[in-house]
Amino acid sequence: MPKIMHNPDVLWRRETEVTDPVSDDETVAGILFSGGSMLSLNEFALEIWQICDGKTLEELVVSLMPEFDIDEETLRLDIREFLDSLSQKGFIRYE
Amino acid sequence: MELALPITVYWDLSPDAISCDYISRLSSEILECRLLMLQLYDPSLELSDAALSIIEQFKGKQVAVTLTISNSSFLSVSADSNPELAVKEILIACDGLESLKEYPPSEGVGLSFFVNSKNWTELPEVISFCRKNGISRLVLPMQRLYAGEEPFFLNRQEQKRLETALAEAGGTEGLKLTIHDPFLWRAFNPSTPFPQGGCQAANTMIAISPDGGVYPCPTLPVRLDGVGDKTLKEIVASSAKKDIRRRILETPSACSSCQELPVCKGGCRGRSLVMHTSFDYIDDACK
Lengths: 95, 287
Prior knowledge:
The structure holds 2 protein chains of 2 kinds. By secondary structure, chain A is α+β, with helices and mostly antiparallel strands. Chain A contains 3 helices and 5 strands. In chain A, the strands form 2 sheets. Chain A has a 3-stranded antiparallel β-sheet. A two-stranded antiparallel ribbon of chain A has the order 1-5. In chain A, helix 2 packs across helix 3. The N and C termini of chain A lie close together (9 Å). In chain A, 18% of the residues are buried. The model of chain A has no long low-confidence stretch (mean pLDDT 90). Chain B is α/β, with parallel strands linked by helices. The two termini of chain B are 27 Å apart. In chain B, 39% of the residues are buried.
């Protein structure tokens, strides 16, 4: 099973500051930035981002399963969907 | 997506001497903003003490520093016995190829080509020059309209002409390009939508001019405040900054029914403001 690897050019930050919003965007937990593209992350996505480097999908499922009250297959699908979106944008690659 | 703190700070240094206190205080204030990238531009003919001091203060921090310097400055650093600079990348600033032909930059550095109405036709030659000299990084930086530059833009015919000339010159494959202007982007990437999601002035970016003015973007000459009057974080959180961001986010009325709006999002708002003294005006590059 391929390992997930961060693109080393990606910069990221947890969003901790709270200010008056100037748009209707939802508050985000974190952001990824690379090559002019920015991606906002919710808490779930940020947690995956923080732990996925060097792991396989199955290792991520095992790590995250205790934190979520959902069945394993649903969690696996949610993680895979997020990772695929990261891969399409070049934020991660599979090795 | 609207952010509470910027991702990028553009800091243009003055060619005159800058006090250590100023450098130290502003560096700390920038770090407090938890940015991800510092775009530092030093126009001096030799790398300034200010630039070296700033690089030292950002050493080991989680900030990717890009240093843009003159070719003469780079040559002097290269000749120095201790040329290790703790930066993510070095870009050589130029607005013409003549100065670079005699001493082309070495591999590993990039080019920051300041495009204007006089030199834009050189862009295909710039691409060829990069390819020939093993330069894989090219930035077309934002215009410094806060410094009173004449706004530059290509109309649709010129964009098409450039697109054709770039293709004839062999295209841009293998070059890592940064282009901030959505319409200039189109000439280089006719089939790829502009990735930056509209004007990012006062959102993902903030700019500090050589005289200490804080601006939403180098291309948007509305001074939010001055360094020292408030901290940078206070300026970023100020109502002045939020007000201007709200105005930037309003679609110009002439664009409201345009099919290209989802991609260009009204184009360069600073350019519209300078050329028409109003945010509610179509970017001339769209015409």
